[in-house]
Structures are given as C-alpha cells and as structure tokens.
Amino acid sequence: MTETVIDVIFDILVILLLISGAFFIISATIGVIRFPDVYTRLHASTKAATLGISGILIGAFIFLYANHGIISGKLILGIIFVLLTAPVSAHMIGRAAHSSGVEPWSKTGETRDEYAEIKNKGS
Amino acid sequence: MSEFASFLPDLISVITVICMVVVTISITILLYRVVKGPTNPDRAVALDAIGINLMAMAGLVAILLTSTQLNDVILLIGILLFIGTIALAKYLEKGVIIDRNRD
Amino acid sequence: MPLQIILNLIIAIMWMFLSESYQFTSFLTGFIIGALLLYLLQRFIPDAFYLSYVWKIIKLLFLFAKELVLSNVEIVKWVYKRGRDYNPGIFAMPTDLRTNWEITMLTSLISLTPGTLSVAISDDNNMIYIHAMDIDDKEEAILAIKDTFEKAIMEVTR
C-alpha cells in the first residue's frame, strides 16, 4: 500500500514538473515574439527557457528513477550545463548587439543608454 | 486508490505528448522570428531559444520511450548550442570568429 | 585548507581499513567521522574549518536557484501583461570585485535576477553595464545587487 502511495506522489510530481516546464518554454517563445527589441527578447529567452528546461529534465529524471529504477546523472549534468552557459551566451549576444549598433527600445522615445554615452566619450 | 494508481502512467504519456505538441508549436513560432527578425542579433536569440527547445524535446522523447540512450543527445545538443551561440556572437561583433591578436 | 582535506580523506580511508569493509558506505561514514573530528579539533589546526567554506558555496548556490525562480515569475508576468508598460534602458553599476572569476560569477547572477541582464564590462573591470526592464527603479536594483550578490561572492572568495 505504501509503495503505491509513493508511486502516486512521484507520478503527480512528474506531471506537474512537465506541465510547468512546457508552460515556461511557451512563455519564453511568446516573449521572444512580443517584446520590442533584442535586449528585452534576451530577458525572455534566457530566464524563462532556463527554468522550463530544468523543469522538463528534472521531470524526466524523476520519471526514470520512480518507474524504472534508473538513476541517470547525465540529465542533472545537462541542467547544470544549461544553468552555467545561458547567462554567458546572453551576455555575448547582448554585447554583440550593442556593438553592431542596436539601440534599446524605450517607451517614452528617449533612449537611456549610459554605455553608449561612455563609449562615445572615449572615442 | 489502486485504480487511480494504475491510471497514472497513461496520464503521464498523454501529458508528455501534449508537452511535445506545445514545444513543437514553440519551435514553429520561433522559426518566424528567425526568418523575419529585424536585425541579426534577433536571429541569434531565436536560434538559441530553438536549441533550448530541442533539448526539451529530447528529454520528452526520453520519457516517452523510457530509455537512457537519449541523455547523451541532450548533453551534446547543449554543448553544441553553447559553442554555436558564442561563435555567432563573436561573428556579429567582430566579423571574424578566430582572431589572431589577443586583447 | 589542503592539509585539512588530506587529513579528512586519510581518516576516512583508515576507518575503511579498520572496519574491514571496503565499500562506499563505510568510506562515507569515515568521512563524516573525520569531518566531526576536524570540527572538534579546529583550535589546533591552522586555518579555518574547511567545511564552513563549502557551506558558504552551498548557500551561494541556493541563492542562485531562488533568484532564478523569482525572475522567471517576474518575466512571465511581463510577457502576459497587456500593452507595454515598462521602460527599458542600460545603466552603469560600479563594482568592487576584481578578478575575472568573481566578475564572471557576478554577471551570471545578474543575468538570472528579475529584470536585469548584464550587457558589457568596462575595460578596467570596474563598471558593469546592465540592461534593465524598468530603468526607473535602477537605484533599488543597484542596492539589491550590492547587498546580496557582491556580499555572497566576497564571502566565498576572500
């Protein structure tokens, strides 16, 4: 009896993790479509996609452990790898966008960009 | 209770298929951004997000097939995605990927 | 610090030989006993107890995870809100951290916090340029980053 209870708890956990992961991934996509410029799109794609992939991979790990007794450390390694590399790639794309001359979008029309001010002063 | 417990594995596979459909829709929407994207950095962002979605897709297929063979695929997609994004960003910034004079 | 780790490993292996069971569980038991001994005898060993350092790293990792979840909830709110009632912009933040390693950790943490994304670092390593979703509360963001992240990183590295 106790085994079935634990199985049910694990299964419900897997379902919740999968649904939340898919929700965060589709939110990241909608953010990439809806936001007005590169930097805001980077906000959406780094943060929401990272949590979405962590949710789905942790769900897969728990599923493989609970139903088949397989402990696969590679999934955990994949999560750690994504967590480490997502900010770095975001930083690189942001810097590349800035140096290729993309201006930040602004609601009021005047862009606030202290980095561009300092770069212009230096040159 | 026991009927509920026997019902859950089917539910998991149904949910997995639904999540796969959601991820597929997400990749399709991102392809629009890759094609349309006003500037090149936009395309880089969208390609990065597509890579993340592919990783999620491989994880979902691993659940559906209950195999561990796809774990290597997940790690490899992650590594290639990181290298590709860095190379693309360097190309957009400097016009070359491998520069000889280090600064 | 290396001395303490070596002492701990030697105690663990000696425990394994003394109890004559060459398995991972007995090694783990020996490791825990060694850590306990080092904690009790820390007055006679140079340097601070090394597991307190490990504990600080674990605390930094937990901070990272908490901020990640919070920032995701924030960004999902921005995504589904009707209209564009945010005002993005880039601001500069002075930092006290010096080495490349510290600055890499700080920029990663900044990129995964609510509403901020590091864009560039100045050549002399003392300014970080941050893109914020809402630039109107930039003072608040600078204070939060200085208070939590810089302090946590400094506790680990200094």
From TrEMBL, chain A:
It is found in: Membrane. It is a multi-pass membrane protein. GO terms for cellular component: membrane. One of its GO terms (molecular function) is sodium:proton antiporter activity. Keywords: Antiport, Membrane, Transmembrane, Transmembrane helix, Transport. Residues 109-123 have a biased composition (Basic and acidic residues). The chain crosses the membrane at residues 12-36, 48-65, 71-90. Residues 100-123 are annotated as: Disordered. Belongs to the CPA3 antiporters (TC 2.A.63) subunit G family. PANTHER family: ANTIPORTER SUBUNIT MNHG2-RELATED. NCBIfam families: CPA3_mnhG_phaG, PRK12674.1-2. This is Monovalent cation/H(+) antiporter subunit G. The lineage of its organism: Bacteria, Bacillati, Bacillota, Bacilli, Bacillales.
Automatic annotation (TrEMBL), chain B:
It comes from the Bacteria. One of its GO terms (molecular function) is sodium:proton antiporter activity. InterPro entries: MrpF/PhaF-like. The keyword DNA repair does not apply. Keywords: Antiport, Cell membrane, Ion transport, Membrane, Transmembrane, Transmembrane helix, Transport. GO terms for cellular component: plasma membrane. It is found in: Cell membrane. The chain crosses the membrane at residues 12-32, 44-67, 73-92. It is a multi-pass membrane protein. Belongs to the CPA3 antiporters (TC 2.A.63) subunit F family. This is Na(+)/H(+) antiporter subunit F1. It comes from Gracilibacillus oryzae.
TrEMBL record, chain C:
The keyword Zinc-finger does not apply. It holds the Pfam family MNHE. Keywords: Antiport, Cell membrane, Membrane, Transmembrane, Transmembrane helix, Transport. It is a multi-pass membrane protein. One of its GO terms (cellular component) is plasma membrane. One of its GO terms (molecular function) is antiporter activity. Its main location: membrane. The chain crosses the membrane at residues 22-41. It is found in: Cell membrane. InterPro entries: Cation_antiport_E. Belongs to the CPA3 antiporters (TC 2.A.63) subunit E family. This is Na+/H+ antiporter subunit E.
